[in-house]
Amino acid sequence: MRDEILKYKDDPKQLEKLFRTNKTLFKKEFNAQYDELKGNTLADFWNERLNHENDEISWGSGKELLFVLVACLVAGIIAKLPALFNLQEEDFYRRNVGFIIFPVLSAYFAWKNNLSLGKSLFIAVAFLASSVFINFLPNENKSDTLILSCIHLLLFLWSVLGFAFVGGSRNDNEKRLGFLKFNGDLVVMTALILIAGGIMTGITIGLFSLIGFNIEKVYFEYVGIFGLASAPIVGTYLTQTNPQLVGRVSPVIAKIFSPLVLVMLVIYLVAMIYSQKDPYNDREFLLVFNALLLGVMAIIFFSIAEGSKTTKSQTETWILFFLSIVTIVVNGIALSAILFRITDGGITPNRAAVLGGNVLILINLLLVTGQLYRVLSKKAPIDGVGKVIASYLPVYIVWAVIVTFIFPLIFGFK
Predict the structure, then answer these.
(1) Residue 120: CB partners within 8 Å, gap ≥ 6?
(2) Does the record carry Transmembrane helix as a key word (predicted)?
């Protein structure tokens, strides 16, 4: 978007169009290069418009608000399908939990970005085909491939949402990073909404109990489930119409947790040496170890996505560099444990999926660490780290497609 802003710096209509496409990214890119545009009347106007302090919350247009309300209703109805059609709840939610949120959010961004008919049809077909596939997989007891397919399907659906968010662009790394930032902001906003909703739930149930009405069952079956389904949708709407709400909170969270996670991880690795558990002989410990790895990876990527275009201090960059190195050590331990288990007990769907995922993560970490070292050596700008992350995202998507749709066939639905 940076190049587009410079290109259309004298065209008010095109600048307005860019702003409406992605308000958060536009403001970030505009502020990053405003020094070059000072003196331009239109640029000065946009500077005042974007950076004027406004405490009021924008609710967007009437059409947008109506779209969000309908989306919340649709998500709630999908979540209620087991009760409406007497379906087995555990099996339904295991296979279809991603279809409660991702399709309506993708429709929202497809509408916001004015995607072409062809791209919109691609999104619709992706959701429909994956829904048919996952729901027609054999319901074998203790089927590893079914569980793996359900887990990786979420990543695939998330990638379809990303496609709608970036407007179908294949090579726009800035928009991909914007998508990662959106996910971080959405987590913060959704958490706040759920906390507020939990408080309201407690107060409501308590008040009704005082006058002799026990509404817990009805409340949770209807208000509760619709509220849970709607929280990410409302969170998305608020982050897109009011980027200032969490625009300053998310970077602070990233800065606070990066050094804390680094310290925790080092202490954990030292403690593991003195403990009686190791990922080589304890399957449950290996699963927790890999979950830890994914969590730390998310912290690294979120921290970089939050400030890929801003100037980071040397201390922040060093923290991310050391955190990446320690995460590589964690990944190496997990990878060696997986190889040990494969050598000892043979290949299984779970081991193949975890092995492939860990190899991809290791390669990504090495690329990120190398780029961070170049930044610290003054050989590259910090935004190069973001480009490495953004350009590698499709690799994860390809792996998710393989595990979701091909593993059940390769391993005979076992």
Answers:
(1) 110
(2) yes
162 within 8 A of 394, measured Cβ to Cβ: no
- Sign of the dihedral defined by the CA atoms of residues 360, 363, 369, 374, in that order: negative
For tokens 């409501």, what's the residue?
204
Q: How many domains does the chain have?
A: 3
Q: Do 371 and 340 lie in a common domain?
A: yes
130 and 202 housed in the same domain: yes
Sequence-ordered list of residues with C-beta below 8 angstroms from that of 202, at least 6 positions apart, any chain: none
The answer to whether position 57 is within a domain reads: no
Per-residue CA distances from 37 to 12, 31, 232, 299 (Å)? 14, 10, 37, 34
How sure is the predictor about 55, in pLDDT bands with cuts at 50, 70 and 90? Answer: low
Helices 98-112 + 144-165 axis angle, to 10: 20
Q: What is the pLDDT of residues 107-165, one digit of tens each?
A: 999 998 889 999 999 999 999 999 999 999 988 767 899 999 999 999 999 999 999 99
Residues 92, 41 within the same domain = no
What domain range is 39 assigned to?
Answer: 2-51
Whether residues 212 and 260 fall in one domain: no
Task: Pick 96 or 286 by higher pLDDT.
Answer: 96
Whether residue 162 is found in the same domain as residue 216? yes
Q: For residue 26, what pLDDT is reported?
A: 78
Q: Among 153, 97, 127, 159, which Cα is nearest to 408's?
A: 153
User: Are the C-beta atoms of residues 374 and 380 closer than 8 Å to each other?
Assistant: yes
